[in-house]
Write a structure and sequence with these properties.
Shape: globular
Helix content: 55-70%
Number of strands: 2
Order of helices and strands: HHHHHHHHEHEHHHHHHHHHHHH
Distance between the termini: 15 Å
Strand content: under 5%
Strand order of the largest sheet: 1-2
Radius of gyration: 22 Å
Structural class: mainly alpha
Oligomer: single chain
């Protein structure tokens, strides 16, 4: 049962402290305390910075052409609803327990140490792999924009110099401090939101009803989707592979959910927020509301401007403007893509370092690596460690094939966070909740079911890779985390548990 020992809310709050930046030997479990410097405006900036990126600039074309047709608009809307349900659950927990680590810490308080480790390990995969995938995309967009040699920039490069350079540069920004990162992110967010609005306003004049008919193309058998490439649900139910129709819309929703991943970064920053009970829900819900509106608007314009069968899979938005004679807009859209992807990488690096910081504070990772810098107030060593991991992924792995791992990792985290809301309401009814999920436990249960359904629409190959990553995480936990856990050490010394 020691594997399921829980950390009390009081201990979590004591570790977070008052956010004075104290890096003394007893502060925050010996690693220091994060400084409270962020407002709701900063949180929305970080949220939009990490959410609006490669998903809208690439997934729209692929899923419209190959899976859902014009109804990819509905796919984005469905994925947005699932993300909104999870965001409501995050809002209640983050406003009640403002601490770094988000889903990891919530699991520690409700489900126990083992599951907390699993979700923390899962979040490493989500954000580190997400940063690596986006770094590759950033390099490709920059190469196309400036006509740089493909041997050095993009997926085909033996050593992707562009991806390496952007990760190194943004790592430097991340270690300087969260306020400095917020300023950079704000500039990038303004650029990409302005261009997304431009795409909608300019493109809507070229929308043709013929391109939107039929809105949901009739389902048809698919030539692919066999073996490990088929969705888990298809394999379990013994269904034949198919695309388009209602099934295609749902399958596309599982894939484009990647476009919404990362918004939980806002919850990870709650310990650094001045008024988390108010600002974190505003940051989470504001991020998703704006992102969903932009996604649906851009997707509608793209499938309305050109026939879905003629959409370019690599650069759907720029190609749509090319096809209607507005080629000059392509460069503007590419600039927005570069800005959008840059902010995603930066926020991913910041988020994953905070998760590692929280786990180091609990002793599940070496505290010396998680310790805060007295000068910058950031976990510099942890940031550098994960930046190194991202660089290894950039150099060694075929990231385009692993992108779905980001989606399954995010959905798994959402399942646990959604389940934690009714569990914590039952075990700690006295806990102050500045924000409450309406209609609980109905909405949290719906969130769990919706996330599980989207996970079931991902391929067997994705599931096997995900399970292999979790198995590796269990090995690390047994080898280090279990023996060095602060709760475990307290139990063995006879002190009161956390």
């Amino acid at each position: 049962m020691q594997l399921f020992r829980t950390k009390s809310i009081e201990t979590i709050s004591a570790d977070a402290g008052d956010g004075d930046g104290d890096a003394g030997p007893d502060a925050g479990g010996g690693v220091g305390r994060l400084r409270k410097t962020l407002s709701a405006r900063h949180l929305v900036g970080f949220g939009i910075g990490v959410v609006i990126g490669t998903g809208i600039f690439t997934l729209t074309g692929v899923q419209a052409r190959d899976t859902a047709g014009p109804a990819v608009v509905l796919s984005f809307a469905l994925a947005g609803v699932v993300a909104l349900l999870a965001a409501l659950c995050y809002s209640e927990l983050a406003s009640s327990v403002p601490t770094a680590g988000s889903a990891y810490t919530y699991a520690y308080a409700t489900a126990g140490e083992l599951l907390a480790w699993v979700i923390g390990w899962d979040l490493f995969l989500e954000f580190a792999l997400g940063a690596a995938v986006v770094a590759r995309g950033w390099s490709a967009y920059l190469g196309n924009l400036l006509d740089l040699p493909p041997s050095l920039f993009g997926e085909g490069a033996a050593v992707d110099v562009g991806a390496l350079a952007v990760v190194l540069a943004l790592t430097a920004v991340a270690v300087l401090g969260v306020q400095e990162s917020a300023r950079v992110t704000t500039v990038l967010v303004v650029v990409k939101v302005a261009v997304c609005v431009f795409v909608i306003v300019a493109g809507v004049w070229f929308v043709q009803g013929a391109n939107l008919t039929p809105f949901v193309p009739a389902g048809r058998p698919s030539e692919g989707g066999q073996g490990l490439e088929q969705p888990l649900l298809q394999w379990l139910a013994g269904l034949e592979p198919a695309t388009f129709g209602v099934g295609g819309v749902l399958t596309a929703a599982a894939v484009v959910f990647f476009a919404y991943t990362g918004f939980e970064a806002v919850a990870n920053l709650s310990e650094e927020t001045k008024k988390p009970s108010r600002d974190v829900p505003l940051g989470l819900l504001g991020t998703l509301g704006l992102a969903t509106a932009l996604y649906i608007g851009v997707a509608f314009v793209v499938v309305g401007m050109v026939t879905y069968t003629d959409i370019d899979a690599g650069a759907p938005i720029a190609d749509a403007f090319d096809q209607v004679g507005l080629g000059w807009a392509s460069a503007l859209i590419s600039i927005a893509a570069v800005a959008g992807l840059t902010s995603v990488i930066l926020v991913d690096l910041i988020t994953v370092s905070r998760i590692g910081f929280a786990m180091g504070r609990d002793g599940l990772l070496p505290p010396v690596v998680a310790k805060l810098s007295p000068r910058t107030g950031t976990p510099v060593r942890m940031t550098l460690l994960f930046a190194g991991l991202v660089l290894v992924m950039v150099l060694l792995f075929p990231l385009a094939e692993l992108a779905n791992l980001v989606s399954i990792g995010t959905l798994f985290a959402f399942v646990l966070v959604s389940a934690a809301v009714p569990v914590l309401r039952r075990t700690r009814p006295d806990l102050p909740r500045p924000f409450r999920v309406p209609f609980s436990p109905v909405l949290p249960v719906l969130s769990v079911l919706a996330c599980l359904y989207l996970m079931a629409n991902l391929s067997l190959e994705t599931w096997l890779r995900f399970l292999a990553w979790l198995a590796l995480g269990l090995v690390v936990y047994v080898a280090y985390g279990y023996r060095h856990s602060r709760l475990g050490l307290a139990e063995r010394s006879g002190r009161p548990r956390g």
